[in-house]
Amino acid sequence: MAQHFPALFLLGASHHTAPLAVREKLALDAAKAATLATRLQATPGVKEFALLNTCNRVEIYGVAHTPEVLAKIDAALCETTGCTPAEFATASFQQQNHDVVAHLFSVASGLDSQLVGETEILGQVKDAYDDALAKRWTGPVLNRVFQKTFQAAKHVRTHTAIGSGQTSIASVAVDLAGRIFGELVATKILVVGAGDIGLKTVQAFQSRGSTHITVASRTLAKAEEAAAQAGGWALSLAELPEAVAAADIIASSTASPGFVLTRELIAAAIKQRPARPLFLIDLALPRDIDPAAAGVPNVFLYNLDDLAKIAESNLALREAELARCRAIVAERTASLWPQVANSLNQLGP
Hints:
The chain is α/β, with parallel strands linked by helices. It is built from 14 helices and ten strands.
């Protein structure tokens, strides 16, 4: 069937289509996001757009006036991130019109997440829209779609039990630690990074009875603030070598573009505690912990994809709710799409 333009479009890659190494390459830091946005603004035929960038997805939503625009956006994303066109072609997907609405509804509701039912994604979608709105990247089409998305996500959360069980990456990480160590009261925990995920990880460990929690951050004041909530200790990243040697479990979630915990640092720490295993949980994208650290004896490393596999056992508890959620998404998409289609038609060729 021929596609009609102007069209609502989605171009992106997610955990469904791209392995961790490719998602890592596609991740947009502030500088890359600004560069990409500048290119999109300068691309003829792109009338509206918004960028959704999380640890599990990079997605560009927008309105295109011609089919050729989509190829230009594809090229702009590859050139901005350094991902090769061939690599991106195997890891990406495109959607248009009605399918875009259904997809965004599902994403914001947590139905498309690596941890199905997780709640953080709705806040991330809201932040992406707020940013696009403030910078005047959006217009009548995307404004309507995103505003209706938030209503749909709230309805799904209110009328189903999709969020039951361990549905945040922090809670899954701490659940894993509990399976390995049992009681966590005397276990020495090091949380690297004091951002949103770091704070939630500290809270999750505290809820499991952890009393030996140290928080390390590039900004010592942020580490102190996070550690104070758990009655723990705060360090700067410069003090990591000693802290790593003392820890039993390390959960890392910084925004660093390179490895915070290198293989060399981990290997040196293990030499100081040869009889004790060290469990590493990498919650960051790009990754904080050198994957080569898994080759150090007595070191056990888990990344985001590993945690998602562990969390699949919780998905069984919510399978019955998925059908109800998808029915809600389908119903609300069908209701909204005629309005969006009318807005697109009014844009003209």
